[in-house]
Every structure is written in structure tokens, then in C-alpha cells.
Amino acid sequence: MVKICCIGAGYVGGPTMAVIALKCPSIEVAVVDISVSRIAAWNSDQLPIYEPGLDDVVKQCRGRNLFFSTDVEKHVCEADIVFVSVNTPTKTRGLGAGKAADLTYWESAARMIADVSKSDKIVVEKSTVPVKTAEAIEKILTHNGKGIKFQILSNPEFLAEGTAIEDLFKPDRVLIGGRETPEGQKAIQALKDVYAHWVPEDRILTTNLWSAELSKLAANAFLAQRISSVNAMSALCEATGANVKQVSFAVGTDSRIGPKFLNASVGFGGSCFQKDILNLVYICECNGLPEVAEYWKQVIKINDYQKGRFVNRVVASMFNTVANKKIAILGFAFKKDTGDTRETPAIDVMNKFDWDHPIHLQPMSPSTVKQVSVVWDAYAATKDAHGLCILTEWDEFRNLDYQKIFDNMQKPAFVFDGRNIVDVDKLREIGFIVYSIGKPLDPWLKDMPAVA
Ligand SMILES: NC(=O)C1=CN([C@@H]2O[C@H](COP(=O)(O)OP(=O)(O)OC[C@H]3O[C@@H](n4cnc5c(N)ncnc54)[C@H](O)[C@@H]3O)[C@@H](O)[C@H]2O)C=CC1
Ligand SMILES: O=C(O)[C@H]1O[C@H](OP(=O)(O)OP(=O)(O)OC[C@H]2O[C@@H](n3ccc(=O)[nH]c3=O)[C@H](O)[C@@H]2O)[C@H](O)[C@@H](O)[C@@H]1O
Q1: Model confidence over 335-392: pLDDT tens digits?
Q2: d(Cα 406, Cα 412) in Å, to the nearest integer?
Q3: Nearest ligand to the C-alpha of residue 217?
Q4: How far is the centre of ligand 2, averaged over its atoms, from the C-alpha of 52 (Å)?
Q5: CATH of region 3-199
Q6: pTM of the entire structure?
Q7: What are the sequence ranges of the domains in the chain?
């Protein structure tokens, strides 16, 4: 029986391995992590991440051929294929701080694999890593490996949170990069055989190592670039009276451009887009390509601009200050159908509100006045509020009773839709002053000295 071990039981390791276990009953899959609480949660009825369809998949195979464990070394030692799906955040200190990927988790995983292995293994990069990481990993493994043979493969993951199970069941493609040697090709075939249990052959792409590593960074950069492009257009729409929904529909019907990923928003969030682009920027700089680095940096600059623009609209509309006002934030996750709040635009928006709050009105200590409170219900959140900001596109926010909300808010009552999900005309009829990203401006906003 083929044995797979995955190091890192996070948003990627957990769902990907659960799907491999489901689709390949003949393979034993162990997901290991140093976090005791995370593993305990994977072994409980309350999984550590919220992902539609995940509970069902885990229930079907946990204890059968899917195991979650903190005994990292034992499972690595026994495995034929070791996936490494640890976090690769942006470095916060030292060389490349603020841009380069922090590979300390990866390096310690690689050293541990080298230490505990007693048989040949295929080591698979599942985490998103800088191009050429496989070379460094190879060096760590072969220098410590006591003659044991390791083949490194790059198999980046393209799932999106909220649709992870769907994406894993029917991926657009699976990408496997490996060495162009006979041993490398054999390793590629072994991993292909795993995916071939459910992914059609023509969707399994094989490349050299560096192409696979770089394709992942490139894919995320292209996706984020589409969002920054449409968000840049949203600013121009507001200035000209065009409607960004109509513009993106018209643009997206061109089959060369396509309709997906053209929703204007308060900005993209999530743990990966920003970090992966920064990583790309750093790699370009290190390779003497400052113009290319500058090009990709703009994607992040526009994203920051968009978040700032949104807050400026809110503050300018509300008589140029939010001090002493109650603002209801509807949605905090970085997108719908996930509980993940890493790098969510809601954090930036709320921090900027805090910045607008004059010092003399700030509580002396965090316990004296509670500036932020969290409630379960949109009606409770909006009661007596001066304005509401929609920051995540949860379906429930489309169908709220906005008349009831309006009746319970302070007047004038404002709606700031950072996701373009409300019916602007209907809300204006109710009496709200509405700002919706990239849509023709409310007369109220036109008169404000808004700076965007
Ligand atoms: N979150 C997402 O939707 C996607 C993430 N990725 C990439 O996948 C990688 C993992 O991302 P997430 O799953 O979101 O991260 P995560 O933070 O949810 O999970 C990583 C896990 O690795 C564990 N870990 C770290 N070092 C370890 C070690 N030495 N031994 C054992 N466990 C260790 C941590 O305790 C943590 O539970 C990142 O490189 C990310 O860029 C790629 C595609 C999608
Ligand atoms: O490497 C990763 O981590 C993953 O990053 C993204 O997936 P994810 O961040 O989970 O979610 P997305 O659906 O891409 O959304 C990212 C952000 O962009 C925003 N977005 C998305 C689409 C759009 O049209 N407009 C827009 O503002 C979302 O609200 C969210 O804040 C990619 O879509 C995945 O392919 C990739 O595997």
C-alpha cells in the first residue's frame, strides 16, 4: 500500500489530503502537524477550518485511510511520498523583510525529513514557494540524507477557499514539476498515478521544476492583477458616471478576456495574493529586473489605494469624521464561505476608521469604552448605527430586510457596499444614502469633497 504523509494540516494540507484519501482508497494518508490543537480539531466533530463539503469528505475516510496526527516523525519515516504544505508567510525581519517568503518552516520540515528518513522518498512541494526553492531543499536533503535518495517535485495547489472541495474534485489542472532525469520522470509518474484516480489525464500537466514553481506565483499574480484592473476602473467609473458592473460585463464577454474574476471590490484579501506578489517582486529584484518588479508592485499599490478610497468615501460622506459614530461592519472574512480572516480588507478598513478617530475621543484604556463589539446578527449590528459597510459578500446580506434596518438606524442612514451586492435603487427608495463601489454616485456623495 502506498503511504502518503502531509506535513502541515492547514487550509491546504487538510482538504487536499482528505480528497486524495477519498478518491484513492488504496492509499493511506497521514496528515501531521506540530500544532496539537489543530490536530485535535481535525480528529473532532468541529474541524479547524470551515469549508463547504469538507465535513462530509473527512467523515467518509477519517480512521479508514485518512489519519491526523502529531507524530510527525513516525509518519514521515513510513511514507513513500511526503507532501510539505507548511505556511510560507512574508518575512517580517532581516534580508528581504516585507517581501521575501519566510522559508523557515519549510527548511525545518526538510531537515526533519532528512533526519528521520530510512528509505527513499518523493518530497512534494505543496506550499507556494519562490522559484528555485526545490534546489535549496534538494541540498538540505542530500547533504543530510545518509545516502537515501530523495526526488523533489513541485505540485503547487490552485484551490480557492470557500470552493476548495469543488476545486479539488474538478481541478482546471494539476501541475507537477520535476527533474528531467529518469529518476525525476519516475517520481512525476508516481504522483501522476495518485491524481489519475479522479483527474482526467489531459488535465495533469507536467513541467520542469522551475516552471511549476513559477507558474503558481504567476497564476496568483494574474488573478490579483485582474482584480486590481477592475478596481482601478471602478475609480474611473465613479468619476465619469459609468457603472463598473456594466463595464466588466461588457469587457468580460470578450472570449479572450472571459467573465470570471472581474468583480470590483473593496480590495482583495486572503493569506496569499499579497504575499505571493511581494515574493514575485522580490525575485524579480534579485534577478536584476527592476522594471518587472515595479510592474507587479502596482497590483498591490492599487489594492491599497482601493481600500483607502473606500474609507475616504465613508468618512467624507459622514461629514468628514466617523468619531462618535457607530458603524456596522457586515462581514469580516476575506471572502464568503470561509471563516478565514487572514489579510482581510476588513482589518485595513477598520484600522483606518480608528485612525480617523481623534485622540481626545479615544478611550484611555481599551477596557473603559469598548470600541469594537461583535454580534451574530446583522440587525443587532446595525441598530442605532449611523452607517453600515458591507465588507464580505455573504449571501445573507443580499436578502436582509433593509427597511427594518433603515428604521432602526440613525438618520441620515448610510450604506457603503464594498462588494456591490445590494440593490442600490431599492435602498435609495427606502431612504438610504448609498455608495456602491464603481457605481454612479449618490447626489449626496457628489457634493462631498471626497478625495479618492
Ligand atoms: N490557503 C489557501 O487557500 C492556499 C494556500 N496555498 C499555500 O499553501 C501553503 C500552506 O497554506 P495554508 O494551508 O493556508 O497555511 P496554514 O497556516 O493554514 O497551515 C500550515 C500548517 O503547517 C504547520 N507547520 C508549520 N511548520 C511545521 C512543521 N515544521 N512541521 C509540522 N507542521 C508544521 C502549521 O502548524 C500549520 O498548521 C502556503 O505556502 C500557501 O501559500 C496554496 C494554495 C491555496
Ligand atoms: O494561492 C492561493 O492561496 C489561492 O489564492 C486564491 O484563492 P483565495 O485567496 O482562497 O480566494 P479568491 O477567490 O481568489 O479571492 C481572493 C480575494 O480576491 C477577492 N476578489 C475575488 C474575485 C473578484 O472578482 N474580486 C475580488 O475582489 C476576494 O473577495 C478575496 O478577497 C486563488 O484564487 C487560488 O487559485 C489560489 O490557490
Answers
A1: 999 999 999 999 999 998 877 766 666 655 555 556 889 999 999 999 999 999 999 9
A2: 9
A3: 2
A4: 16
A5: 3.40.50.720
A6: 0.96
A7: 3-199, 241-452
